[in-house]
Amino acid sequence: MLKEFKDFIAKGNVMDMAVGIIIGAAFTAIVKSMVDDLINPFIGLFTGGVDFTNKYAVLAGDVAAGASLEAAREAGASVFAYGAFIMAVINFLIIAWVVFMLVKMVNKAKEAAEKEQEAVEEAPAGPSELDLLTEIRDALKK
Questions:
Q1: Which tens digits make up the pLDDT trace of 26-43?
Q2: Which of 5, 90, 97, 137 is most buried by a 10 A CB count?
């Protein structure tokens, strides 16, 4: 079993996956900051400053009117936090859109690079250095 584990770790795919996970975690922090700090304020502006994260319904327990979701939870009340779910869905859609646009941009860059490579490969190759030296030698013999 130890040998199988060693073989598994030694495969290149595992290292690629590890790098992908690390970059994904860093990318998640960037996208989360973009959503929280740049996009959500505009959503709040368009919704009249409504903060969905503190929207909830009390299922059981006593909660003061107008208390925040955190205060309701600290009071031990059973709450149905629909606002947090709405914000999670909005954040997911924004993140999915950003990732879609990023993948689309990378695919365009990759296609352009492939077309450029094909153009370079299709270009007629001139005589090689050996061919030129052979022609020079033959010309000097005459």
A1: 888 887 788 778 877 887
A2: 90
Instruction: Specify the 3-state DSSP secondary structure of 67.
Output: coil
pLDDT of res. 104: 92
For the beta carbon of residue 17, count every other beta carbon within 10 angstroms. Answer: 11
| pLDDT mean over 111-119 | 83
- The secondary structure element, H or E, covering residue 60 is strand 57-60
Residue with tokens 């060693």: 6
Residue 57's Cβ-side half-sphere holds a number of Cα atoms within 13 Å equal to 4
Tokens 């969905």 correspond to 52
- Range list of H helices, 11-128: 12-33, 40-46, 69-74, 82-122
Backbone angles phi, psi at 130, to 5 degrees: -65, -40
Do 80 and 59 form a contact (C-beta atoms < 8 A)?
A: yes
Does 88 score more than 70 pLDDT? yes
User: Nearest-CA neighbor of 81 among 120, 119, 41, 54?
Assistant: 54
